[in-house]
UniProtKB/TrEMBL annotation:
Keywords: Oxidoreductase. The keyword Oxidoreductase applies. This is Pyridoxamine 5'-phosphate oxidase family protein. The keyword Plastid does not apply. InterPro entries: F420H2_bilvrd_red/Heme_oxyg, Pyridox_Oxase-rel, Split_barrel_FMN-bd. PANTHER family: HEME OXYGENASE HI_0854-RELATED. It holds the Pfam family Pyridox_ox_2. It comes from the Bacteria.
Length: 156
């Protein structure tokens, strides 16, 4: 059995910089849940914050269902992931400018963030800000498993 992360570890991991994969039930009945990569922000104990286009399919589906999930992972060994799911607790329309700036600086170097914000300034009127309160957590940290698998002889 793969060990789950403790609360403080999972919250720190989610707060680290990862591209998240947002998942939402596809209420159109045409397919499996919709999954799309997104930038996000999270601070331990807080809400998951995502900004997205008001006109996006994911936005419409999140508004219809009132909830979404977000999954983030380490793509290098030993692998780890955190998945959170919960209700949308607020929608800011149009997008929150301070959140947008903070998110850009989270993912980009300072000069690149400034240039990105300037080049995409129109999105402030086209995007909305979603805040989701995590209710369900799913986690795995393969570090202990990897150490066990490697054995004690150090030859593997």
């Amino acid at each position: 059995m793969v060990p789950a992360m403790q609360r403080d570890a999972r919250e720190r991991f989610l707060a680290d910089v990862h591209v998240g994969v947002l998942g939402v039930t596809d209420t159109r009945g045409e397919s499996a849940p919709l999954l799309v990569p997104v930038w996000y922000r999270y601070e331990p104990g807080g809400d998951v914050v995502v900004q997205t286009a008001r006109s996006a399919v994911k936005t419409r589906l999140v508004e219809e269902t009132g909830r979404f999930s977000l999954c983030v992972q380490d793509e290098t060994a030993p692998y780890r992931y955190v998945s959170v799911e919960g209700p949308v607790v607020s929608v800011t329309d149009p997008a929150d400018a301070a959140e947008r700036e903070a998110t850009a600086h989270r993912y980009l170097e300072s000069d690149d963030a400034r240039d990105y914000l300037t080049a995409t300034a129109h999105q402030l009127t086209e995007d909305i800000t979603l805040r989701m309160r995590p209710e369900r957590w799913r986690t795995a940290d393969f570090a202990a498993f990897a150490a066990e698998f490697a054995g004690s002889d150090g030859n593997r």
